[in-house]
Design a protein that fits this description.
GO terms for molecular function: iron-sulfur cluster binding; metal ion binding. It holds the Pfam family Fer4_9. This is 4Fe-4S ferredoxin-type domain-containing protein. Helices cover about 45% and strands about 10% of the residues. The chain is α/β, with parallel strands linked by helices. The chain has two domains: about 350 residues, NADP-dependent oxidoreductase domain (TIM Barrel, Alpha-Beta Barrel); about 80 residues, no CATH class. Strand 4, helix 4 and strand 5 form a beta-alpha-beta unit. It is globular, with a radius of gyration of 22 Å. It starts with 7 loop residues before the first helix and ends in an 8-residue tail after the last helix. It binds iron/sulfur cluster (2 copies). One iron/sulfur cluster (SF4) binds next to helix 16.
Length: about 475
């Protein structure tokens, strides 16, 4: 990949940096009531975020003020642990609280939450004045059936119906980046781009953009279409690990430093997704968390990542999926107001800490669930998240040479059974590869699952650790 067009130093020059004060926050985004109980325990001494202190960024086109913290509606609270029965009462309550604290950007998609996110979001937002919020949704026509113009238009109009709005504030072509052939099939050859441009002219789409996961070549070609389409905004993955290491971790990803620079030089606002990499930057191994704590004991691990994502001036808003009220409050504490990171802090994160995280060699799963559902029931993200967690905690059983092999073996097998039902574990993967094209991190899912399955098989056969796992 062509090396970054913007160095970290010029990044700092471009953005400048403010002074630093303590901001305590923490967030993570796991669904389910069990996690909710844990969240409640973890945050029992949580302070209330202040009202009237939200930081806003200006949309250069509309001049509207957008809250720097945006609500990602992809991991909504459910009534029963990990069910698909969403808790509308709680969603309403959390959206009311977010709006009361100055948040005004809500991001959803027809495919989030088993297709129910738009409806839940619409019900909650409709109880507020239309002028109090901006709603963003997407043309998520991944399935080839929806490449046909009539089906794609149906998806677009259905979004407005579900959201109970007459116009969309932000509309995105969802997950551009696989190939130009796909881009053309989904948006150009079927006339959808022309249609959406007319919808923008008519005011039913106020800002038109795309979200990106994928190859630099595709990004370059699509961003070059700015002259023709005038992208009003682009959604990218930006955090201190992806800034310089996204491409090193996966050949199919592009460093955030490159993406950001390309947007910045064209004056296109960036909407940020994955500031915490699906919680990975909040759940660092203990020794790394302790290192961050030693620099600023009053700050949480996650607050570093949130402030990193919000510091660049070309960022319009940072999306965070907030399943529980505790997450919402803690995220608000990072952005009410946002205190930008200093030059030294930026460097410390995207050089020192990021390099150490890369060295962990985790499976780069951010729990986005785009690969789900697996037709054979495998809970892909839960298996990867559990594996990474054990690895980072140093409790992965390593066979010969692992002094605590027996303890680690037992812990691994028991904890896996707790988080993933037996019939959803990796040994049930038939290797059909259907999940892989959907993974924005380009993880070779089948290969990783089979590696974990082999490891589990060894653990079961080898209780004393006499063979190497
Ligand atoms: S490869 Fe395995 S995990 Fe992926 S869809 Fe097929 S059975 Fe499911
Ligand atoms: S394997 Fe890929 S698609 Fe599936 S949850 Fe992880 S990052 Fe997302």
């Amino acid at each position: 990949m062509e090396k970054k067009n913007i160095s970290r130093r010029s990044f700092l020059k471009i953005f400048g940096a403010g002074s630093v004060t303590a901001v305590a926050t923490l967030a993570g985004c796991k669904g389910g009531n069990k996690a909710g109980v844990q969240a409640a325990e973890e945050y029992k001494n949580q302070v209330e975020p202040p009202i009237g202190k939200m930081t806003y960024r200006e949309n250069p086109k509309t001049k509207e003020k957008v809250s720097v913290l945006g609500y990602g509606m992809m991991r909504l609270p459910t009534k029963v642990n990990n069910s698909d029965e969403f808790d509308q009462e709680m969603i309403n309550k959390q959206i009311d609280y977010a709006i009361e604290h100055g948040m005004n950007y809500f991001d959803t998609s027809p495919v989030y939450c088993q297709g129910k996110s738009e409806r839940c979001t619409g019900i909650a937002l409709h109880r507020h004045k239309r002028s109090e919020y901006f709603v963003a949704t997407k043309l998520s026509n991944f399935n080839r059936d929806y490449w046909a113009a009539d089906k794609a238009k149906e998806m677009y109009h259905n979004s407005m119906k579900e959201l109970q709005v007459e116009y969309l504030d932000y509309y995105l072509l969802h997950a551009v980046g696989g190939s130009m052939e796909e881009f053309k099939g989904r948006y150009v050859d079927n006339g959808m781009m022309d249609y959406l441009l007319k919808e923008r002219e008519a005011g039913r789409i106020r800002n038109l953009g795309f979200s990106f996961h994928g190859k630099q070549k595709v990004f370059d070609e699509v961003i070059a279409l700015h002259d023709k389409y005038h992208w009003d905004f682009v959604q990218i993955e930006l955090n201190y690990l992806d800034w310089d290491y996204a491409n090193e971790i996966s050949n199919n990803n592009v460093d955030a430093s490159y993406l950001y620079a390309e947007l910045y030089k064209r004056g296109i606002p960036a909407v940020i997704m994955e500031p915490l990499l699906g919680g990975r930057l909040a759940n660092l191994p203990q020794y790394l968390a302790a290192e961050l704590k030693s620099h600023a004991p009053e700050r949480s691990v996650a607050s570093w990542a949130f402030r990193y994502a919000g510091t660049p001036e070309g960022v319009l808003t940072v999306l965070s999926g907030m399943t529980y009220m505790e997450h919402l409050k803690d995220n608000l504490l990072s952005y009410c107001p946002l205190v930008p990171l200093s030059d030294d802090e930026m460097r410390y994160l995207d050089k020192e800490i990021a390099q150490k995280i890369v060295g962990l060699e985790n499976i780069p799963c951010n729990d986005c669930k785009y690969c789900m559902p697996c037709p054979y029931g495998i809970d892909i993200p839960a298996i990867f998240v559990h594996y990474n967690k054990c690895k980072n905690e140093g409790s992965l059983p390593m066979g010969v040479g692992d002094a605590e092999y027996r303890k680690h073996r037992r812990q691994y097998l028991i904890s896996l059974d707790r988080v993933v039902p037996r019939n959803r574990q990796p040994d049930h993967c038939i290797g059909c590869h259907q999940c892989e094209p959907h993974c924005p991190q380009s993880i070779r899912i089948t290969r990783e699952l089979h590696k974990i399955s082999d490891m589990i098989e060894s653990l079961k056969r080898d209780p004393l650790g006499e063979r190497t796992v």
